[in-house]
Design a protein that fits this description.
The protein has 276 residues and is of the alpha/beta class. The chain has 12 helices and 12 strands. The chain has a 7-stranded parallel beta sheet with strand order 8-7-6-11-9-12-10. Helix 7 runs parallel beside helix 12.
Length: 276
């Protein structure tokens, strides 16, 4: 049965997850158990529910209770639904809600690298990509363009951060992913060893004198390929490039030196998609 709760007091602790806790605090909310994340918009919430995420509460504009969020509410039976008019919710959360709906959910258990890569032919490895928007955009491209899984180094932004999940259109719940290593010093050496043990050739997306073009036929014919993408500012670290089997570039024109990492990922995923 749905329990609708009209917001009359901003300070009730049940609203802390929406109004007063940072993403990092939500991540550690239930330690040593899994933390919490906030899913934003009905599409993202539905995709999180589809992959088994457990809802804790909902926050939405009053008009959506019997409108665009009615299906979400039906799938979250027994979960409290906190509601108010848009201006009150904006005052509470500090931002205008996208599509007027938020859902606090328990984080799913994180799989192992081996589980994520099982049966995969194309995976992406994100090295120290800290912008949540870029992470979300890369996941969306990966889902659309045939990437089987994504691995992230420990310094990467969390794909379940609210903005990442929203920009990804919920594909962070469709593409298998996990972190490769728990500490920053476990990448690249230990991480590369794991990838090689799993049978992957590695392709560093970087501009260098010995780069091969992204349409190189040998590169494209690899049975199992890990496409390694670097941070927004510095790109891949030198050790990572040296450890990869290929260094790969996207040919540029008009004296453009490089693409944003999210745009580069889409080009790479399309060109290097598995055709076996």
């Amino acid at each position: 049965m749905t329990r609708i709760v009209e917001i009359t007091d901003f300070n009730v602790p049940e609203l802390d997850v929406y109004a007063r806790l940072t993403e990092a605090q939500l991540y550690h909310y239930n330690e040593p158990k899994s933390g919490i994340f906030i899913a934003e918009s009905p599409k993202v919430i539905h995709r999180a529910l589809d992959c088994g995420c457990k809802p804790l509460s909902l926050l939405m504009e009053r008009k959506h209770i019997e409108g665009q969020a009615s299906d979400v509410i039906a799938r979250c039976a027994g979960v409290p639904v906190y509601t108010a008019e848009p201006e009150i919710l904006t005052q509470l959360t500090g931002f205008e809600l996208t599509r007027g709906v938020l859902c606090a959910m328990l984080r799913p258990e994180r799989p192992t690298v081996e589980q994520v890569c099982e049966g995969a032919h194309r995976i992406a490895v994100l090295e120290n990509i800290m912008n949540p928007t870029n992470v979300g955009a890369i996941f969306r491209s990966a889902a659309a363009l045939g990437v089987d899984a994504i691995l992230l180094t420990p310094a990467c932004s969390d794909p379940l951060y609210r903005r990442s999940a929203r920009v990804s259109m919920g594909t962070v719940f469709q593409i298998p992913w996990t972190y490769i290593g728990k500490k920053t010093n476990e990448w690249p050496q230990k991480g590369m060893e794991i990838l090689k043990e799993l049978g992957f050739k590695t392709a560093a997306m970087a501009l260098s004198d010995d780069s091969v073009s992204i349409d190189d036929p040998v590169l494209m014919s690899e049975e199992k390929l890990a496409i390694v993408l670097g941070s927004e500012g510095d790109g891949l670290c030198g050790e990572t490039i040296a450890d990869c089997d290929y260094t790969v570039k996207i040919p540029m024109s008009h004296e453009v030196d490089s693409l944003n990492v999210a745009a580069a990922s889409a080009v790479a995923f399309w060109q290097l998609r598995y055709k076996g």
